[in-house]
Each structure stands twice: as C-alpha cells, then as structure tokens.
Specification:
By secondary structure, the protein is mainly alpha-helical. Helix content is 57%, strand content 7%. A hairpin with a 2-residue loop joins strand 1 and strand 2.
C-alpha cells in the first residue's frame, strides 16, 4: 500500500553504492519508463522523481503479477548474467554493478536475435558509464558464467530464457538462444 523512501539516507551512501542502486533505476527506464532515461543524466538533482518513477514501475508490475508469473520476470532485465557475475566474483561486484553488465549483455543479445537498434544498445553503455557503472566483465569467466546462468530461476525445463527489450519500454523474452549466440554477445562486452 505504501513505499517509504528516505532520500537523505540514499545521499549518505558512497558514490559506488549510489551508482549500484541507480542501475536498478536505469533498468526500470529501459523496461517501462523512458523518461527515467532522460532524468538519469542528473541523478542527484532528479533523485526524488527517479526513485518515485522507478518504484512506480516496480509497484505496477508486482501488483499485476503478485505470484511471480511471466509479467514479473521483466523486473529481471539484466539479472540472468548479473546474478552469475555476482556469484563468480564472490560478491565483490555489487548487485547493481552486475546488473549493469547484464543489461549490456542482453542488449547485445537482443540486437543479434531480435533486431534491437544499435542506438538503444549504445544508450545502455552511455548511460551506465556516465553513472560510473561497469559494462564489461572478464573474458575468461565465460564458461563459469554460462554454467551458473543455467541455474537461473527463469530456466524452465532446461531452457535458458532472457528478459530483453525490442525497444525502450517494450519487453520480450529470448528463449533457447544457442551457446554460440550467447558467447558472441558476451564477447562484445568482455574485457
């Protein structure tokens, strides 16, 4: 019924923690509210509206899908690879940092599989880098990450599924991408 956010607490966090939290805000911009992507260029000046809009997106999704069906999965944009990176790094990579990398990965996958425009793909990198968030991860980690992604909660009957966007605010699922397609997308973000 109500969400209470103490903005003064947010502002007391380290810059790294603020950036990590803003990754989740950016996610809501890509999946549902393009205005967030315009406001995020001045995150502290626009903090109240960014938090409000982000919470509103999540609240709308959760209230329509309380039991975690398909709609709610859109809140996991960037999380399939993100969770694998968190685990691989032994949680030295913060959740939001890992999700930022995961969003870049799934944007690359969506460009290859469903034609997400390069402008939208590049906007992922531009926005996330401006927030001091990582957009790449270790090249040599790929096989470990692939194995961990196979354990993701969105895997159904052994089928790896990714929440993706075909345009800002329009979510789709990519089901059963090949190992080659996944690896090619990862190579575009690997360092």
């Amino acid at each position: 019924k109500k969400v209470i956010v103490d903005l003064s607490f947010i502002k007391s966090l380290s810059q790294r923690d603020i950036s990590a939290g803003l990754a989740e805000v950016v996610k809501t911009g890509f999946i549902a509210d393009r205005k967030i992507l315009k406001l995020i260029d001045k995150p502290l000046e626009n903090l109240e509206e960014l938090v409000y809009r982000s919470v509103k997106v999540k609240g709308n999704v959760v209230s329509k899908d309380f039991r975690e069906g398909k709609l709610r999965e859109i809140l996991n944009y960037g999380h399939t690879l993100g969770h694998a990176i968190e685990k691989h790094s032994n949680y030295s990579v913060r959740h939001g940092e890992a999700v930022a990398i995961g969003m870049c990965f799934v944007a690359e996958l969506a460009a290859a599989k469903i034609g997400l425009s390069q402008d939208v793909v590049q906007s992922h990198y531009k926005i996330l880098k401006a927030l001091n968030l990582p957009t790449s991860y270790k090249k040599e980690a790929w096989s470990d990450l692939l194995g961990t992604m196979g354990l993701d909660k969105k895997v159904k009957s052994g089928v790896l599924r990714f929440v993706a966007i075909e345009s800002v605010g329009k979510c789709v699922r990519i089901e059963s991408p090949t190992i080659d397609e996944l690896q090619a997308a990862y190579e575009r973000i690997a360092q």
